[in-house]
Amino acid sequence: MDLTRRQLLWTGGAFTTTALIGACGGGGDDDTAGSPGAGTKPRRGGTLRVGALGRAGAITRDPHGTQANESDYLILSLVYDTLTVPGSKPNTVPRLAAKWQASDDLKTWRFTLAKGALFHDGTPVTADDVVHSLRRLRGTPSGASRLPGIQAENITADGTGTVVLVSDYPNAELPQLTRLTTFVIPEGTTDEDIAKAPGTGPFKLEWFRGGNARLVRNDQWYGGDVHLDAIEVKIFESPQAMANALLSGQLDLASNVGAVAARTAEGRKDIQTVRRPNDMAMPLVMRTADGPFADPRVREALRLAVDREAMVKQVLSGYGTVANDILGTGDPAYAKDIPQRTRDLAEAKRLLKAAGFDTSRTYELLTTEDISGLAESATLFASQVREAGVRIKVVKQESAVFWDKTWLKGDLYTTYWGTNDSVVFFASKTMVSGSGQNEAGWQDEEFDAAYEKAMATADATARARELRELQQIEHERSGYLLWGMADGIDLAVPAVQGLPRLPGYGRVQLERTWLAR
């Protein structure tokens, strides 16, 4: 399971060009937290001790492989650069690609590499390196969903500084899809050598042992000043163990630690809490292709039977917000004007009766304990829908069994996504007919047409209108029940400054973090 499971156009001339925003960072000062005071300049130096979640059996050193551990993804993201990274407005900004251009038909995209980009061994980054990396990524089991519509043979170099991607269909948001795992390694790197491949990122790997690592500053990084001398990453199997290590002085930062740990630290003046809204989506998936939830009236009934505010209060301890069954809540194009769905048990019962739903049966809801709150959300959901006459038995599965046997196949199950700032991301990967990670088996011709129309619209304002129509269809009849959004939560000692506040992949951008001591 990769992280995607477990990442503006100006019309004119022959091409449409995005603005170069900032110095290849995040999205400006508003994207960091923990500032000790206005006008305070970051200090250079120090080692940041970071805790991150992970399991020893899931460790990977492959930047294009399955990254189920937060610890692995943090390390890889500091060592290797992607072409683009998340920002605030817009939500995609330059990184290794300094700028990009699209052809008039929005099928051909040209990415110009940042000047002065070097691998950690001192060799310049070329377009051939990027082509090798993207083709290798495309060849992974989940490569089609990471680069949808891009065939390996349609990733080419134009000289040493330009990479050309040709899509099978118009794709106005293609740069957004290069944010997550388009990590760049040198051309010719083999699978056997992947763990030793030098990166281009703000930190260099000094050592790696059993999921723990020490990274040192890359003084030749093209992206600007890196303040810390080093970052030491320690792997933890539970949020509570990580929080305890922070509280006992063994860590400076507990990354993505969760609501329970945040509640433990409440009221402590020696600990700061950084909340990142719209960080984690934990929807329920109802299979639409066949089975007991194929009737849209049944899916609507379940969505109406949920007490969303109670879910946020009890499952997330209040560290989250009510959602409206539309994935991508952090997207600037998110349709906030679509009326919020609220609990209506009488209507839920009416719809179930009209659909002929068998309320004498007990239906299984499959879940895992991969992340904090996931299994709890399933249990509370089962309790709530019982009031509408639906009997649910929650079945917890081991992680490996769940992702092999249930994900993409089950009638009713929980899922989660650690990135939620893009409506297009979810539409392309999980809802368009035939998409590689279509969790609900949903096929809707009207939705497909709305997606294609939006992706073929160059003007950002006009595209936002098309995306609203797409979200309206998703709200009405998709296979998702998204009851709420969990905040991303970091706990840190007061000396840690400049922590990222962006959700999803933005949380691992620690190159601007510094220590005020």
Report on this structure.
There is one protein chain. The protein contains 13 helices and 24 strands. The protein is of the alpha+beta class. Strands 3, 10, 11, 12, 13, 14, 16 and 21 form an eight-stranded mixed sheet that branches. Strands 1-6-7-9-8 form a five-stranded antiparallel sheet, with helices on one face. Strands 19-15-20 form a three-stranded antiparallel sheet. β8 and β9 form a beta hairpin. α12 runs antiparallel to α13.
Topology:
Layout: E1 15-17, E2 32-33, E3 47-53, H1 70-79, E4 84-86, E5 92-94, E6 97-103, E7 108-113, H2 127-138, H3 143-146, E8 150-157, E9 162-167, E10 203-209, E11 212-217, E12 230-236, H4 239-247, E13 253-254, H5 259-265, E14 272-281, E15 284-286, H6 296-305, H7 308-315, E16 320-322, H8 345-354, E17 362-367, H9 374-385, E18 391-396, H10 399-406, E19 412-414, H11 423-431, H12 445-455, H13 460-477, E20 480-481, E21 484-492, E22 496-497, E23 499-500, E24 514-515
Parallel strand pairs: 3-12, 3-13, 17-18
Antiparallel strand pairs: 1-6, 2-23, 4-5, 6-7, 7-9, 8-9, 10-11, 11-12, 13-21, 14-21, 15-19, 15-20, 16-21, 22-24
Helix pairs in contact: 4-5, 6-8, 12-13
Provide a concise account of the structure shown.
The protein is an alpha+beta fold and 517 residues long. The protein has helices at 70-79, 127-138, 143-146, 239-247, 259-265, 296-305, 308-315, 345-354, 374-385, 399-406, 423-431, 445-455, 460-477; strands at residues 15-17, 32-33, 47-53, 84-86, 92-94, 97-103, 108-113, 150-157, 162-167, 203-209, 212-217, 230-236, 253-254, 272-281, 284-286, 320-322, 362-367, 391-396, 412-414, 480-481, 484-492, 496-497, 499-500, 514-515.
